Amino acid sequence: MSVTTWLKSQRPLAGRALSFTIWLNTANGLLAIIQAWFLAVILNAVMFAGAGLTAVQSWFWALLGLFAVRAVVVWFAERTAFQAAAGVRIALRDQLYRHLQRLGPAYLASQRSGVLTETLTKGIDDLEGYYARFLPAMSLTMILPLALLTAVLPMDWLSGLVLLVTAPMIPLFMILIGSGAEVRNQRQWKQLARMSAHFLDVIQGLTTLKLFGASRREVAVIARVSDDYRVSTMQVLRIAFLSSAVLEFFATIGVAVVAVFIGFRLYGLALPVPPWLSFPHINFLHGLFILMLAPEFYAPLRNLGVQYHARLAAVAAAEQLIQVLETQPAQTLPGTAPLAVARPLGVRFESVHFSYEEGREALNGLDLEIPPGQRIALVGTSGAGKTTVINLLLGFLTPTAGRILIGAQALAEIDLADWRRHLAWVPQQPRLFQGSIAENIRLGTPDASLDAVREAARRARADQFIAALPDGYDSLVGERGAGLSGGQIQRIALARAFLRDAPLVILDEATANLDPESERLVQEGIDDLACDRTLLVVAHRLATVRRADRILVLDGGRIVEQGDHDTLSVAGGRYARMIAAYSSHATGTIQTA
User: Fold this and answer.
1) Which helix (H) or strand (E) holds 127?
2) How many Å apart are CA 103 and CA 97, to the nearest integer?
3) Domain holding 438: CATH number?
4) Do residue 318 and residue 436 come from a single domain?
5) Could you read off the pLDDT of 383-438 as tens digits, one per residue?
């Protein structure tokens, strides 16, 4: 789908407000014809008929009323134009956000955050001019000049002919100049997206840049990127000013030619044309009326030229939007069946294959079983496929081949939202959001009572440090849990899992990077969480592995060993070598490099 076609396809999002804007602006243009007639009548009466103020007083009052009506119409037109653009912005942001949700973390991890942020904010904002200004201007260009010609031609066909001949020059040059501006505008948008992404990367890595002494070098890079964007912006503005000058020139020439033809005939002078060509006489009333309508005739064309740059900005922004929206999720069509398995849940992978890209399989015919109510530990070297298994279970990815069964029900047939309601997830680095501790614990169950929140925190061994805070559960935490330690954040994440009370809990290295005391508290919480639930634990910590009912050793996307800790540690296989590496380093971590 072309960018222009896509932009037009989003027009229904503007609703009736866009149609109201077009009709109100059309009404304003028609009122301008009446206003010009009123002015021409008043001036003709005063200057040629010798009428006094009393004679034209009624015309004056009608003219003032017309001014007021036009002001109200313009105000309403601006208001409806804003509503139309706002409707498009809100709908597209919602559409884009939901599509990003469907694409999942796997897609987001491959994109630069700054580019996506720019697309969600300024990219969608740049569409406002297209729907609030350009589309109404394009509609008025097709309506008002015809209405004005209808008023002019019966009075003076010569003036109408001049308007008709000169009018196409404006859109012609607008297209010629605009074609060059479109290329530069798209280049400017891409530079802005890259600059935004680079700025975000620098801000997020400022500590690292400082420690490595690279901050001054980055300042020079930012200065160069900013200067490139400045040059690109000035090129676009140069073309924009040139376009405006050309449009004004042809509009002025058109008005001047009409004025000359009317002036010559009003004074009874001969026009510089062949003798055989004669033109009709015109009186002052009609001549003044046509002369006042001439600028109004070119006004929609000039306005379209000005708003054409809003279209260029929208086209540049829409390219990135289309690129995101046309990206297909890794999942197939979502299932619609409710989950039919009672707790605790059992999971089985049957010959599951998955590839992030062709020729590089993350899972290669994986057969894996997680019996109901058991604690299963999944270990393996980096790149063995542990994270892929988790993402498949969470519904962020879909197997390339094979199937995943929940009980006897295929995961692909289950409604994804219903399936996730039966899951709790505790990642290695949980994310807390700006707000109170109670709000963060309620993330998955927003309607939970404070007593339920406190009980979940108690079972997660988080109640003591929360109670010690000045505001307790109403204490505010910063973005990503600023103000709390890693162990405290991890226990809040455990409290979320307790409050959700899901039959299947997935823990992704939940005790990694914790001090011994925090690890002990988190491990106690995990032991409590394991009661009457099915646990899948991706573990590097020996203490976590020892407690598992069964350990699955993953390598090259396959299960190469499985059994309990005592059996595998003396089998002399890959798991035993990992244990030996752990013992030799004495770090408390199974070395998986």
Assistant:
1) none
2) 10
3) 3.40.50.300
4) no
5) 788 888 888 888 888 888 888 888 888 888 888 888 888 888 888 788 888 888 88
